[in-house]
From TrEMBL, chain A:
Name of this protein: Phosphatidylcholine transfer protein
Biased composition range(s): Low complexity: 632-648
GO cellular component term, pick one: cytosol
Subcellular localization: Cytoplasm
Keywords noted in UniProt: Acetylation, Cytoplasm, Lipid transport, Lipid-binding, Methylation, Phosphoprotein, Protein biosynthesis, Transport
Region (Disordered): 632-664
Domain START: 49-211
Family: Belongs to the prokaryotic/mitochondrial release factor family.
Assembly, per entry: Interacts with ACOT13/THEM2.
Biological process terms in GO annotation: lipid transport
MF terms in GO: lipid binding; translation release factor activity
TrEMBL record, chain B:
Highest taxon of source: Eukaryota
Gene3D superfamilies assigned to the protein according to its UniProt record, in alphabetical order: DNA helicase RuvA subunit, C-terminal domain (1.10.8.10), Vaccinia Virus protein VP39 (3.40.50.150)
A GO MF label: protein methyltransferase activity
UniProt name for this protein: Uncharacterized protein
Pfam family for this entry, one: PrmC_N
Signal peptide limits: none
Gene Ontology BP, a term: methylation
GO cellular component: mitochondrion
Length: 664, 297
């Protein structure tokens, strides 16, 4: 009954994944890793949209699933009022009813559309999932609702393929005649805010679905992974453990594993001794400190166990393969029964190798010292002209504009704190405060330094070199007043008497001890007469100390950032923008971007600048990992550098308990 | 004879330790502070010199403490949670465990409030009852923290009734206190009072077996308060349950403190009592089972 869509339309959508064709379309906006183009149709007064972008962290197959799964969509798309299948034909064709809540003053609208999925091959041989949807009202499957406008003209196509990094490259085309007159302002709002907002939801949906599915499949094991209390880095920068670091890595995890086993044995022994001697106090104290360390190491130790087991299994399977292949190795794959076994074994190892690589990265990241700066820290970015007079000021102005465009692209909130323009043109000094984003400082810190430009100035015909300096600094939160401790992180210890307690005892046991588990900060309080009062004081004291630790860490980072800052020296150049040759070179990683349309880059830095920053991040992450592993192998000690530092900070704060007893 | 606070403090500490007074440091601190008109000793006081009058007062207090008279009676007042209460022999001195009973009672109170099927929720103020009020510690805290609540307090000992009223008055909540000096077993107790949302109690519960190991301080407190629980310590508790069964509104709660040995017994033999159902047993800060909550169905 349902006519299938012509194949060419699927192919056309698929082709857009490889060759973007925006003829007749104007660039409209860019946000959340997505670019939107539109074409105006003077007869209808409406726009057609083309959208190109990336959805990170989810395969195209998963994205297609998310896109088509109506049940799941109802949960993550807040605009949906009603969404259901009216008619199903085969497993790739259906008619869908969709009632959308558009915000005021637009009225609700509903759509009846036919939808079809096809899986094709792109020109370069990758798989692409293509979904086409068109309004189909001839079948009269559902009556119109009062107060809801039925959209008659509706067309959408969506093509998804892999981006080569575990994510998805997406193309979407969209046309909709919503009927009724809608002010242009609203249409623009819809495209500029509504669409990106929707897309950001779409970005998160596959990841959430993946997490939910993984959790369901792995059950308790996943729960353990998700609830690990080791502080997590904010982005997965490492893709795989580099081979050069593997020997140090193996040595380190071997040592950690042995340390954990020794701890376990010690605690078991002490517990046995305590049981035998009927609760002797000295054994108990030792168990306490050991068991705190044990709990801290356990998540890491579990992962190391998993890794070692997987490696062993992989080695065994490889042995099996080689023995099946025989000494002369002339058995072909798929050849008879043994060949099938070889194939299965190879497939198993393939999956296993992937799991091993993933685990290695996870463990490596756990070994890195914890970050002291909260990941949602806001940032101050300053741009000032360097050497070169007017040219330098013009370049500074362009860089300033570039960073505002980048902030917009990333969906960060920014305020222009300072913007001093010179009469002759250009920027004398500019500063942005960027907030409301995760990992802002982590990305922008690489921009600190001297940026050099080589181009022919507007007035002249000789290539000039001028510079501008950028300085990025983390800004600690001023909202210390809003800082609250999570009660789940606090452990309460009070005096315990050995007898039955209760009414039979009249003792002044009011001392309270609080332990903040994530930072290890301890507070004792005994000044007041009741536990109740001491708890209040201890909580306040604990909050102040944790807050102080946090602020100190922020101040340290700030100082480190400043120490790294220097004068606007020519030799400090971090990046060169060469207009003549259309090339951007970052001198730190020896990264080169070429060819680059400079005007476009300054205007829409988006992906390209993001790419440079990502590469720099990867470099730093690897360097940090190497440093961590080397430091440990040098000292041979159990603690990582981060632990030692954290310990130092904690002991500074634990020195003075709040206690007035024994004052004299 | 030294009169400096710092020196006196260490002397008293040594003296009390030698005699076996529990928490010798606390006793020394608080007695000294009391003599110089303070609540606690801080660094600023360590250099002070006592006057002759203060010194003789201190001597008197110390002698009493050496007789193992409880510190709270000597000082005449002590704190419970965040209120200050008058303490007077032989009324039972509130123990620190009971501070948590107040928290549990408040939880029960909100649980009843949340299920708005209570017939009296809008028309009249809601009622709770404290049985065995002693110094009135629990009632004072509940009346302060639940401004709409009224308390029907039932206490056997006349001295305790007086003290309960006095402490409620000192803390400005006596206008919502309705005190009854009677035994729980009195027939027709509470007459035609409306059904209660909550009954809370810290009844005598020490089992006879534990009486022998009690510290001397407890002999200054009323034997009724300490030994009223009978041999197993459950005597008053069982009476409480029958009282609650008769007087609680549907969905109302009974919350009481008990001995750490009672938990298993209650689970085994008192899972249900009339229309009461055992809801849960909570531990105190030392991890011992201390509080029991029943709900009326």
């Amino acid at each position: 009954m349902l006519q299938p869509f012509p194949n060419q339309e699927f192919v056309d959508a698929c082709q857009q994944l490889e060759v973007e064709n925006t003829d007749g379309f104007e660039f409209f906006t860019e946000s959340h890793d997505v670019r939107i183009f539109r074409q105006y149709n003077s007869t209808s007064g409406l726009y057609k949209y083309k959208i190109y972008g990336f959805l990170h962290g989810a395969t195209p197959e998963l994205c297609a699933q998310v896109y088509r799964d109506l049940d799941y969509r109802r949960t993550w798309d807040s605009y949906v009022n009603e969404l259901k299948v009216l008619l199903q034909e085969g497993d790739d064709r259906e008619v869908v009813y969709w009632h959308v809540n558009f915000p005021w003053p637009m009225s609700h609208r509903d759509y009846v559309y036919q939808r079809q999925l096809k899986i094709l091959q792109t020109e370069s041989g990758n798989q692409a999932w293509v979904v086409l949807a068109k309004a189909c009202n001839e079948l009269n499957l559902i009556p119109e609702k009062s107060g809801v406008i039925r959209v008659i003209d509706y067309l959408q196509s969506c093509a998804l393929t892999s981006d080569g990094q575990g994510g998805t490259r997406a193309y979407m085309q969209y046309y909709d005649d919503p009927r009724g007159s809608i002010p242009t302002m609203l249409i623009n709002w819809g495209a500029k805010t509504g669409v990106p907002g929707f897309l950001s939801m779409m970005q998160k949906a596959p990841t959430m679905l993946k997490a939910a599915t993984a959790a369901a499949a792995l059950g308790a094991q996943c729960g353990r992974l998700l609830l690990s209390r080791i502080p997590l880095r904010c982005h997965r920068c490492l893709h795989s453990l580099p081979d050069s670091l593997r020997p140090k890595f193996d040595a380190r995890i071997g040592r950690l594993s042995a340390e954990f086993d020794a701890l376990t044995a010690r605690i078991a022994q002490a517990a046995n001794a305590a049981a035998a001697s009927d609760g002797a106090a000295p054994a108990a104290a030792k168990i306490e400190s050991d068991s705190a360390k044990w709990h801290q190491l356990k998540p890491l130790a579990d992962k190391i166990d998993d890794l070692l087991l997987l490696r062993q299994l992989a080695a065994e399977t490889r042995q099996l393969i080689s023995s099946l292949n025989g000494v002369d190795g002339d058995l072909e794959d798929g050849d008879g029964e043994d060949g099938e076994l070889v194939d299965m074994a190879k497939q198993e190892n393939c999956d296993r190798d992937r799991a091993i690589a993933g685990l290695e990265v996870e463990i490596a990241e756990m070994l890195l010292p914890p970050r002291s700066l909260p990941s949602d820290c806001s940032v101050l970015l300053e741009v000032k002209p360097g050497v070169g007079g007017l040219e330098a000021m013009l370049f500074a102005a362009e860089l300033f504009h570039m960073y505002t465009a980048y902030a917009q692209y990333k969906g960060w909130h920014f305020d222009i704190v300072e913007e001093a323009r010179a009469d002759i043109g250009g920027l004398r000094s500019g500063a942005l405060e960027i907030s409301n984003g995760v990992g802002v400082f982590d990305e922008l810190k690489y921009e600190t330094g001297t940026h050099r430009v080589q181009r022919v100035p507007q007035t002249g015909d000789v290539i000039h070199t001028s510079t501008a300096t950028v300085f990025v600094m983390p800004k600690p939160e001023d909202a210390a007043a809003d800082f609250e401790l999570n009660s789940a992180d606090i452990e309460i210890q009070v005096h315990k008497s050995s007898g039955p307690g209760g009414q039979g005892v009249n003792k002044h046991m009011s001392a309270v001890r609080l332990l903040h588990k994530p930072t290890g900060i301890r507070v004792d309080c005994q000044v007041e007469r009741t536990q109740h009062q001491n708890m209040v004081i201890a909580n306040r004291m604990l909050r102040e100390r944790v807050l102080r630790l946090r602020l100190e860490a922020l101040a340290d980072e700030e100082r480190a950032a400043r120490a790294v800052q220097s004068q606007r020296d020519r030799s400090d150049r971090i990046r060169t923008y060469n207009y003549q040759q259309g090339r951007i070179t970052d001198h730190r990683g020896r990264l080169t971007l070429s060819p680059v349309d400079m005007r476009v880059f300054i205007d829409q830095p988006g992906q390209q600048l993001g790419g440079i920053i990502q590469a720099l991040k990867d470099r730093e992450e690897l360097a940090l990992l190497e440093q961590t592993l080397t430091a440990d192998s040098a000292s041979g000690a159990g603690d990582s550098a981060g632990d030692a530092q954290a310990k130092q900070q904690r002991s500074k704060l634990n020195n003075t308990p709040v206690r007035d007893e024994g004052v004299v | 004879m030294t009169t400096r606070v710092s020196k006196l403090r260490s002397r008293l500490h040594r003296l009390f330790s030698k005699v076996g007074v529990p928490d010798p440091g606390a006793s020394a601190n608080y007695l000294l502070a009391h003599c110089i008109g303070q609540r606690t000793l801080t660094r600023e006081h360590s250099r002070l010199e006592l006057t002759a009058q203060q010194l003789s007062k201190l001597t008197g207090l110390c002698n009493r403490r050496l007789q193992r008279e409880p510190l709270q009676y000597i000082l005449g007042e002590w704190d419970f949670r965040d209120v200050s209460l008058v303490m007077r022999a032989p009324v039972f001195i509130p123990r620190p465990e009971t501070e948590k009973l107040v928290d549990l009672a408040k939880q029960c109170w909100s649980a009843v409030g949340a299920s708005s099927s209570h017939p009296h929720s809008l028309s009249r103020p809601r009622l709770f009852s404290e049985v065995c009020t002693g110094s009135g510690a629990v009632s004072v805290c509940l009346l302060r923290d639940l401004p709409q609540a009224h308390c029907l307090a039932i206490e056997l000992l006349p001295e305790a009734c007086h003290l309960t009223w006095e402490n409620c008055h000192r803390n400005g909540v006596s206008n919502r206190l309705h005190l009854i000096n009677a035994s729980l077993a009195t027939p027709g107790l509470l007459g035609r009072a409306p059904p209660l949302s909550l009954i809370v109690a810290n009844p005598p519960y020490v089992p006879e077996l534990d009486m022998r190991q009690l510290q001397p301080e407890v002999t200054f407190e009323s034997p009724v308060a300490l030994r009223g629980g009978g041999i197993g310590g459950l005597g008053v508790i069982v009476q409480l349950m029958d009282f609650a069964d008769a007087r609680l509104a549907t969905g109302g709660w009974l919350a009481f403190e008990m001995d750490s040995s009672h938990g298993q017994l209650l689970r085994d033999r008192f899972q249900n009592r009339g229309s009461l159902r055992l809801d849960r047993i909570e531990s105190d800060f030392a991890g011992k089972e201390r509080f029991c909550l029943y709900r009326k169905l």
